[in-house]
Design brief:
Layout lengths: L11 H23 L5 H20 L2 H19 L5 H37 L5
Helix pairs in contact: 1-2
Protein name: Protein translocase subunit SecE
Subcellular location: Membrane
Function: Essential subunit of the Sec protein translocation channel SecYEG. Clamps together the 2 halves of SecY. May contact the channel plug during translocation.
Length: 127
């Protein structure tokens, strides 16, 4: 069975854009190390310029446009979230801390009880 939600690059122009983005990314790394003797300003400037060009090539492709659309949809969904008030958040935090303390005491008591039963009663080891 094929998964209908899997998107593939179909056009030659789109493949060329993605290949160009990858090449620009590799060129950015190569330029950064190749220009190390030119000084940090030239080195970092070339890196940033080629990274921006690589990002620009990626975001003009269909994959980049899909990523932008996904980000915009995510922002819309986050705006729909009903966030708790400060009082609700504080209460829930205190409930969690109280639960952790109770569970820690329960586990400690269980451990000590099992230790007493196994070592003192069953095996007869005294410390």
């Amino acid at each position: 069975m094929s998964n209908p939600q899997v998107e593939t690059v179909t056009t030659g122009a789109d493949k060329a854009k993605l290949a160009g983005a990858v090449l620009l990314l590799v060129a950015a790394l190569v330029a950064f190390y190749a220009l190390s003797k030119q000084g940090p300003w030239v080195q970092w400037g070339a890196l940033l310029a080629l990274l921006v060009a690589s990002a620009g090539a990626f975001f003009t492709s269909e994959s980049g446009k899909s990523l932008i659309a996904y980000g915009q949809d995510s922002i819309k969904e986050v705006k729909k979230v009903v966030w708790p008030t400060r009082k609700e958040a504080t209460q829930m935090t205190l409930y969690v801390f109280a639960f952790v303390v109770v569970m820690a005491l329960f586990l400690w008591l269980t451990d000590k009880t099992l230790e007493w039963v196994l070592y003192d009663l069953i095996l007869g080891w005294k410390r």
